[in-house]
Amino acid sequence: MTEKTALLIIDLQEDFLPPNGSLAVANGREIINPIIDLLTPGKYKWDAIIASKDWHTPDHISFAKTHNQEPYSTKLLSSPNGSGETKLHTLWPVHCVQKSHGSEFPHEFKIVFDKLLEQQNVPTKIVLKGYLQDREYYSCFKDVWGIHKTECYQFLKDNCITNVVAVGIAYDFCVMNSCIDSADFGFKTYVIKDLTRGVYPDKDRETTLNYENHGITVITSESDVMKKWIL
To answer: Kind of enzyme, top EC level (predicted)?
Structure first.
């Protein structure tokens, strides 16, 4: 079987970026230009490119404000399918509300990505997640309950993808959960660690172990394996 590789750019959005993002991840802007470099035409061989976006309603269930609680507090929430199953959720500051500035890609990335979207020389897509009000999403593949699926899996299958390479924000939340689902769906999955940033960088070692325990290969932009995707 011929290997085909997709680049998966997770939640590179203004609300996750300093200095003004409502849920800014420290040093998040440092990864923008290196990620843009991965999109340089004629430099890397990607067979598909996806950029995901958190895309929340103003009253999303993941927002602390929705529950009149403090950001980063927790609350036991029930499955939206009425099964009675519950999960303990972290409640976040309001972020990535649909069509808000915070939901947008950073300007310099948007210019490059919009051109790829328009040209479609490589199949390129934006995958929205978190637009259903009544459930949390970390993964770009599905909600935390595994009930609602985004377009991500089908897009990868339609383009005969076998391998997924992930970058973006945050290493310990949306990138990690997207990678776990990618591996569970049968894709050989890599994460370029230096092209991510975490909410809790002091726990990076534990986070990396969790990736490895799920069969995900943690690499850097200098790893030898990157050579297989360079033209």
So the answer is: hydrolase
* DSSP classification of residue 75: E
DSSP-derived letter for residue 93 is: -
pLDDT in tens, 89-106: 999 999 999 999 999 999
pLDDT the model gives residue 41:
83
**Alpha helices, H only, the chain:** 32-38, 107-119, 152-158, 174-184, 204-213
Assigned fold of 5-56+98-229 = Rossmann fold (3.40.50)
Catalytic status, residue 11: yes
The answer to whether 140 touches 52, Cβ cutoff 8 Å, is yes
Residues 184-197: b if buried by 16+ CB within 10 A, e if exposed: eeebbbbbbbebbb
Query: Among the options 125, 129, 142, 193, which is catalytic?
Result: 129
Cα separation values, 33 from 9, 143, 195, Å: 13, 29, 10
- This prediction has a pTM of 0.97
| Active-site entry in 96, 174, 181, 193 | 174
At residue 88, the pLDDT reads 97
Above 80 in pLDDT, residue 182? Answer: yes
